[in-house]
Amino acid sequence: MSDPYLLAASVISVGPICAPPPPALPLRQLDELSTLLVSTTAKLFKSVVTPEIVPLVETVSAEFSPPSPSPAQWRTQPVSQSLTPILIPSEAQEATQQDTTNLPVLPKPQFTALFPTSGSQLYLQRLAALKAGTLFTRLPADSFQSLWAKGTHTKAQPLPSPTHEQWKRLLEQEAKAVAKGQGANRLTILLGDSLTLWFPSQRLPGRQLWLNQGISGENSGQIRRRLSAFAQTQPDTIYVLAGINDLRQGVADDVILNNLRQIVQRLRQNHPRGQVVLQSILPARLNAISNERIRNLNQQIAGIAQREGAGFLNLHPLFTDEQGEMRQELTTDGIHLSHQGYEVWQKGLQYAESALAAKRAERTRKLSDRS
């Protein structure tokens, strides 16, 4: 694991993952932490920050950066071959043929040398952002470092690890804040496990708000059971990535597929105007996980997407080497992604966002022609 960025994230896949989450920290300790965060955040912004969560009120800027590098610059096969069909039903094929390479991109925060490298640090950063009335996905990676960076490069006492329940509560509060303050802004949701949780905010395509709903160690069943946490939001698109932890935990294929089917059905029911996109399970570089099994599952996941009216983003070929395993430079430990791995995923999302934008534009044009 040569890339230090996700070293701490690998904890979710080490040891008996199927064990229940540890007991929650005492409420008093959590309250003290929240009080500390509120106090420090107020000093940082030189303003008063109340203990209450401030609803988000953000307006998408009209200033745009130049287009991102062409997918042809990748070292892998052309993106058009790897990600088509990207949207299902078939009308998406028409959308992907349109020229979407010059869509404007909202400027994102610049990469910084300092960023959270553990779940505890990331949790503190996100909680601080929430108390300040914004999302961590809209901020530079080193935001609120005075709260979480102490001891990063020393042998100082490590920060206490947030529990599974604490992560669930934090994500629920972030979703509530978005639901209250989204306004006319477009919203995209990332739903999944640690791969989603650690997606660098600076790599998220622009032009909209992003809500990260990933939790480390979760399998498809756990993800299915917390869809109500963001049911009040109004997303344009929801990207779902789940299944790798199921494979490590010995969950049967039919259980995984049934969970994914129910996730799509629930999401379409909760968000009838949103586009649900299932993403393929990424290849692994571990003897304990069969890549042939992953390939077979992905074929069935694509079928679920087609039958349930969802999209399917086939990322798998972009991450696979000649032996059918995860490309070594794209992973830190055989499952979790390196910087380069997230760069590949970023390109996939950019392609998907372009295709979806073309689809929406075509739909608007057809409605306009009828009127």
UniProtKB/TrEMBL annotation:
SUPFAM superfamilies: SGNH hydrolase. GO terms for molecular function: phosphatidylcholine lysophospholipase activity. It holds the Pfam family Lipase_GDSL_2. InterPro entries: Ester_Hydrolysis_Enzymes, SGNH_hydro, SGNH_hydro_sf. Residues 203-344 form the SGNH hydrolase-type esterase domain. This is Lysophospholipase L1-like esterase. Transmembrane segments: none annotated. It comes from Allocoleopsis franciscana PCC 7113. It comes from the Bacteria.
